[in-house]
Amino acid sequence: MRKALLFILIATFSAVSAIDVSSCQTLGAAGEYVLTQDITSAGANCIVISVGNVNLTCNGFPIKGSTTGGAAAVRITANKAMVENCKLSNTYYPMSLSGGATNATIRNITGENFTRGIYITGVSTPMYDTFDNITMINVTDTTFRGGGIRIDGAAYIKITRFNTTRSGIGFALYGYTSSWFTNYVNISNSWFTGNTYDFSIYLPTNNDYNKVFDNVFNNTGGISWLYDVDGTTVFNLAKNCTSPNVLGGQCRGGNYWNANAGCVDGNGDGICDSGYTVNGSFYDSLPLKWTTGGGGATYPAVTLNSPAIGANLSNSTITLNWTPQNFSANPTCNATRGGNLIFSGTCTNNTACVSANSTLDGLYSWNVTCYQGSENATSSTRSFRLDTTGPAVSLQSPANITYNSTSLNLNYTSIDSGIGASSCWYSLDGGSNASLPGCGNTSISVAEGSHSINIYSNDTLNNIGSATDYFSINLPPLVNYTSNSESNNAFLNRKWAYFEITYNESERANTTLDLNGTFYEMQCNSTVCWYNAAALVDGNYVYNITMNDTGGLANTTQMRNLSIDTAAPSLSIQSPANQTYYNATSVDLNFTVSDAGAGAASCWYTLDSDPSVALPGCSNASLGNLTHGSHTLFIYANDAVSNIGSANVSFRIRLGPDFVYAPNSEQDNAYLSRDWVYVWITYNESSRENTTLDFNGTIYEMRCNVKH
């Protein structure tokens, strides 16, 4: 058994500033781009490469679009573009290259479901574009404009390992006019199978030197169109037996034609003994014979083993692992990163070859090219990201200051130049961790005092970054009136007032009472402050209480009012007056009351020794059922704080004698049969002076006793 040769190169290389692509866009600056997810276009071109020296690696992610509108999944208009490892589908064109799209390298592309295939038009420009390892499936246009790939007026195009299946046409060469040249197009080592037609070639004059060789045409309808005015299209090269043909036969020369499947290969070299007329004057002198198993050819290839496509790694020593395959001897392999050589040496054929590299953080793309004599193969291009650094965490709030609120915004940023932040959390004062969903800002509630906060963020490789801040909470004193304190809008009928508050403040400096602009220092214990204001004069007062702490914060109670009112209401009686009222049993009770303080609250009166009588609303009234003689009236009024004022007056009621005719006196309207009359009265009068009878105008003095 031959011992395998293994070469290991230890190297350190810097990161390429590769740019992530996560949506359809124009790549308008030179550099390396890496597709990071599936992207879809809604009808327009998805990826447009408009400047030179752009490398796009799709990492196998699909680019999808619409089959309407003539749009392409990838459109290239500038030079030296490289597009690889892409899956394209459901667009009008998978790719289109035009104008300045020279020196392009397109490889490792698979696609399906297109109206037309890859489209190259250079208006007779030497483009020097290379297409390798391309598969196009289900291209629906069956005209000469269709095909897995269509070249219009472009020169120097090399196409290898191009496979078209389940489509209308394998490929199309189209000169359009004699001044729009399609020259020097080489199509080889490709399979056009399961399609309706092999190819469509329409080349007016001056479209020369195109070669179609070492391909498989295994389609049902044969050639769609073969028109070459100059007749320079070549369908075979000279016989060459140094490497197998596309079918795995010993020698290379022309193409395999489905219509020529029954040809004879007498010497077993993989080439039919007789030539094949392709169409008219076009002849393949070395057609291929289908070998046993058909399509069993093996070609030199390079397979990348690790890191995996799009791998995220956290070990700074990166081991690149690949396998050269199917070379005739051990090949020389060159490993490159972004076009820079990082390994060159001999690797054992069909055996893994590795290169260990001490690597800086960053996004890298790499591939390997191996060669042995005339044999060569280039791997696909892969990308990986090395990320050994945690996210950069910056804490904006809380800052290293003192706050006067227990509710704070927790504002921070977590920036990761590698694979991106995965999760975030924080710890307050060394306590348990609290998650921050989506690494978003939030708010926190913090008690008064000194605190520390730690913010953490990690990436999916568990690289952790953090930030720490120290801050404090100092709240204004919490003060409130107690129930012992005078109530708001109080009226007091005393010369003193009592003020008291409860408070919560560990760093109290002083507490003052502001009473009508005069400040008094209050007495305090650990929870209560008080002050007794004495010798207050009657009047209105406004007051509040302010507490200051040693940190310069203060809090003030609400403003309150009180009134000192020690004076009773003042009363004045207008009626009855101090006089004698004749023949009257009722007298108006008219009076006024005034109070400079709280105002009169209620009024009432007493007459002689009778019970008190209310005067609703302190309104005037009437004294009735007065008896003959002397009377004394007292009127009272009180205010809201029970100060009572009064006024009094004495007056006399003088009534006339009280008398009536006695029963035995002559009756009214009496008729008498005598010449005399008798008049008799009874009376009630202690101060009788005289009693007279007016009889028809003649006055007579009557005789009286105490009753009659």
Question: What does this molecule look like?
Answer:
The chain is mainly β and 708 residues long. It folds into 7 domains: 197 residues, Pectate Lyase C-like (3 Solenoid); 58 residues, no CATH class; 86 residues, Sandwich (Immunoglobulin-like), CATH 2.60.40.10; 82 residues, Sandwich (Immunoglobulin-like); 64 residues, Immunoglobulins (Immunoglobulin-like); 85 residues, Immunoglobulins (Immunoglobulin-like); 44 residues, no CATH class. It is 0% helix and 52% strand. The protein has no helices and 63 strands. It has a 21-stranded parallel β-sheet that branches. Strands 26, 28, 29, 31, 32 and 33 form a 6-stranded mixed β-sheet that branches. Strands 43, 45, 46, 49, 50 and 51 form a 6-stranded mixed β-sheet that branches. Strand 23 and strand 24 form a beta hairpin. It is elongated. The termini are far apart.
> What is the strand content?
over 45%
Radius of gyration, rounded? 60 Å
Shape: elongated
The termini sit apart by 175 Å
Q: In percent, how helical is the residue content?
A: under 10%
Q: What's the CATH H-level superfamily name of the largest domain?
A: Single-stranded right-handed beta-helix, Pectin lyase-like
Question: What's this entry about, in short?
Answer:
The chain has 708 residues and is an all-beta fold.
Defining traits:
Pectate Lyase C-like, six-stranded mixed beta sheet, 7 domains, disordered N terminus, 21-stranded parallel beta sheet, about 700 residues, Immunoglobulin-like, mainly beta
